[in-house]
Amino acid sequence: MAYDAKFKVWRGDADGGALQDYTVEVNEGEVVLDIIHRIQATQASDLAVRWNCKAGKCGSCSAEVNGRPRLMCMTRMSTFTEDETVTVTPMRTFPVIRDLVTDVSFNYVKAREIPSFTPPPGLEPGEYRMQQVDVERSQEFRKCIECFLCQNVCHVIRDHEDNKQAYAGPRFFIRLAELEMHPLDVADRRDLGQDDMGLGYCNITKCCTEVCPEGIHITDNAIIPMKERVAGHRYDPLVWLGDKLFRRRS
Ligand code: SF4
Ligand code: SF4
Ligand code: FES
């Protein structure tokens, strides 16, 4: 059954902006992105919104809906009561370009800082052998659609612009973990994670895991194992002794 919903949508650009009120028709089965498109089609043709697939797979339509980071195309209007005002704002962690569109290039800079998969020298295609458990770990992390909702919600950079230099964020901790725990990757990525990507800033609040639309266990399966690996590498007395002895001999 159709009804009229009240929407507040943030309009503006890098110089500032404000919430604008809209009253707009909602039909059965629609999602927030449908309503944003209806506002664009009928009331605000210059409303900027980024989207591509409308199927929860491209990661483009990330925004904050009633303060919660979400994919607009996967947020059903039936989530809200008919008399509830729905507020849609751009992701807060990234600079606004216009309206609901943010500049997420920070993430691509961080992505480039992670060295790619490094197989052992001489390993030929067809010689790769992995246990199923290792395959499944990679598959879980590779479900990431790069919506950057986890990056947006992470308090380390959400409220602290100055941390962005030294912090890569949860999306890249799963990439780091995937490679570090990959049985055929020979690069040691523990120092990179701790010193350059800021793994130590994360205090395992799990907010990233809660908002991930792909259900990736970011903290339990990637961040905590990486922290354990760093701690074992740096603070295990036997590892420390081994390093000392090896250095002395060499
Ligand atoms: S668990 Fe760590 S990475 Fe995830 S939101 Fe919290 S501080 Fe950020
Ligand atoms: S890990 Fe999840 S929340 Fe983060 S970018 Fe990937 S899909 Fe989005
Ligand atoms: S439009 Fe592709 S994830 Fe929403």
Give an account of the 3D structure.
The protein has 2 domains: 3-94, Beta-grasp domain (Ubiquitin-like (UB roll)); 105-249, Fumarate Reductase Iron-sulfur Protein, Chain B, domain 2, CATH 1.10.1060. The chain is α+β, with helices and mostly antiparallel strands. The protein is built from 10 helices and 7 strands. It has a 5-stranded mixed β-sheet with strand order 2-1-5-3-4. Strands 6-7 form a two-stranded antiparallel ribbon. The radius of gyration is 22 Å and the shape is elongated. The protein binds iron/sulfur cluster (2 copies) and FE2/S2 (inorganic) cluster. Residues 51-54, 56-61, 71, 73 line the site of FE2/S2 (inorganic) cluster.
| SSE class | alpha+beta
Write the element-wise H/E pattern from the N-terminal end onward. Answer: EEHEEEEEHHHHHHHHH
Strand numbers in spatial order across the main sheet:
2-1-5-3-4
Beta-strand level of the residues, as a percent range?
Answer: 15-25%
- Described by its quaternary structure, the protein is single chain
Low-pLDDT residue spans: none
The percent range for helix content is: 25-40%
Q: In the CATH scheme, what's the topology name of the largest domain? A: Fumarate Reductase Iron-sulfur Protein, Chain B, domain 2
Number of domains: 2
Bound molecules: iron/sulfur cluster, FE2/S2 (inorganic) cluster
Number of helices: 10
The main pleated sheet reads as:
5 strands, mixed
Cα-based radius of gyration, to the nearest Å = 22 Å
Shape: elongated
**Average pLDDT over all residues:** 94
CATH architecture annotation of the largest domain: Orthogonal Bundle
